[in-house]
Design brief:
Distance between the termini: 133 Å
Largest sheet: 7 strands, mixed
Order of helices and strands: HEEEHEEEEEEEEEHEEEEEEEEEEE
Strand content: 25-35%
Helix content: under 10%
Mean pLDDT: 83
Number of helices: 3
Radius of gyration: 38 Å
Shape: elongated
Length: 462
């Protein structure tokens, strides 16, 4: 009985306080590298949960590491050789501001530089001669080399071209870190090849119609093809090493040929709209005529670029173009657009986007006349001749000019000083008993005149 009482008395006793459970950010997944010219973009999503699945993520920064080596870093010792190439601070979660009593929305809270939990981000690393220098990763133990069989009973085998020499790769991995310095599990390393692809293609040439823009360019001078060209066969010359007709030449056995060449896929191309990039001068400063727009107010100072808001260039081409031409549907006349073209190669299983062509800026001009108005008809009345015709379908139509002349062969002259926007007109300046000839011309906002409509004749009444 006494023992039971002692046990029950101890149940309500408070123990020492427990330490808070440490939170570790979740693993960074779906890390994607893309080499574009001399830059490598590494894209991923900032974790919004902890390793145990709880939200919000206790995360203070995201670190991106890189190393150039023949193998990807797989152990902690090998990852220690990598270089920190970027640190993205994660913004703290701010409380919701109180709603003012008058119901007006609260002013926006200025955010510190950085990225948010769950946001898609990218890091850009320029490739320099230093980043291309490979390092030897430490190995925990020696890997035994498998001995090759001494003999080979097959006298002939496939003719195999020597495998191309693969350079070391640039490997990347990402680690999320809590404000207390607790690190997540490193992401799976991803890599890009360092081999050179095709050189820059020719400068694009841009033309336009009323509804399309066409971009054409000269291919890269060293563009790869999808076929292997064999040397032409040499026909024997009569009298020189000719085989006698009574001798059957020995036919050698046919050997299988297997190619392990660099690539068997042809170079393709991406087209980029670099209009916004053309808004800056060669020194990188924003043009004065666009500084006000960039600052949000005319005449204001330009906004400072967010160092953590890095965007991977997105091509206009939905897929790499196999031909040296790309058509854009839709034209905005009078608005300048700038374009670049880059080659796309497959190098050791990775997509490498090469250097940019010279930039071409082009302003489409509207030199396309509207269609001629149709179904013009004239109706005579007392002291007036009324005209009516079908409306044109052009979206940039400014109106119609009415032309008039006296029958039978007078030159038609404009009756209206300015284009009329309706599809009817009352000519009240006619003389009774005079026969008039009319035509209508459509005019667009660029000042292009259509051909004349059908002619309509009518005699003015008393």
């Amino acid at each position: 009985m006494f023992v039971l009482f002692a046990v029950m008395a101890g149940c309500g006793k408070k123990g020492p306080p427990l330490a808070p459970f440490p939170r570790v950010p979740a693993l960074v997944t779906a890390v994607t590298p893309q080499r574009i010219g001399d830059d490598v973009y590494v894209s991923f999503t900032v974790p919004d949960t902890n390793a145990d699945g709880h939200k919000p993520a206790d995360i203070g920064e995201v670190d991106v590491y890189a190393v150039t080596s023949s193998i990807a870093p797989a152990t902690e010792k090998q990852r220690e050789v990598a270089t920190l190439v970027a640190t993205l601070p994660v913004r703290p979660m701010l409380p919701e501001p109180p709603v003012p009593a008058n119901g007006t929305p609260p002013p926006p809270i200025p955010l510190p530089p950085g990225v948010d939990r769950g946001s898609a981000v990218a890091v850009k690393e320029p490739q320099t001669p230093e980043t291309r220098v490979a390092v030897e990763l430490p190995v925990d133990r020696l890997i035994p080399k498998v001995a090759e069989p001494a003999g080979n009973d097959t006298p002939f085998g496939p003719l195999v071209a020597p495998a191309p020499t693969e350079l070391p790769r640039r490997h990347y991995f990402v680690i999320a870190k809590s404000p207390r310095g607790r690190e997540s599990v490193p992401s799976t390393p991803v890599s890009v090849p360092l081999e050179s692809g095709s050189s820059a293609p020719g400068a694009p040439v841009v033309t336009n119609t009323a509804s399309e823009m066409t971009i054409r360019w000269a291919p890269s001078p060293d563009a790869r093809t999808s076929t292997f060209l064999l040397p032409p066969s040499v026909k024997p010359t009569a009298g020189a090493n000719a085989t006698p007709s009574n001798t059957t030449p020995r036919v050698p056995p046919i050997l299988t040929v297997k190619s392990l060449g660099f690539n068997s896929q042809a170079t393709t191309y991406h087209v980029y709209d670099v209009t916004s990039a053309s808004a800056r001068t060669e020194s990188g400063e924003l043009r004065r005529d666009l500084a006000g727009a960039a600052s949000g107010r005319e005449g204001g100072p330009p906004m400072e670029a967010d160092p953590y808001d890095i965007k991977v260039p997105t091509p206009l081409t939905p897929a790499p173009a196999a031909v040296t031409e790309f058509v854009i549907t839709g034209v905005t006349f009078g608005t300048e657009r700038c374009f670049e073209v880059r080659p796309v190669d497959q190098i050791f299983g990775a997509t490498v986007i090469g250097p940019a062509s010279p930039r071409t800026c082009y302003t489409p001009k509207d030199t396309f006349a509207p269609a001629a108005p149709k179904s013009l008809a004239a109706i005579a009345g007392a002291g007036v001749i009324s005209l009516i015709w079908d409306a044109n379908a052009e979206t940039d139509l400014a109106g119609y000019i009415v032309l008039r002349g006296e029958a039978p062969g007078d030159t038609l002259q404009p009756v209206t000083k300015e284009p009329v926007t309706v599809t009817s007109y009352r000519d009240e300046s006619v003389r009774a008993g005079t026969r008039y000839v009319y035509a209508v011309v459509a005019v667009d906002r660029a000042g292009n005149n259509s051909p004349q409509s059908n002619r309509a004749e009518e005699t003015a009444r008393q």
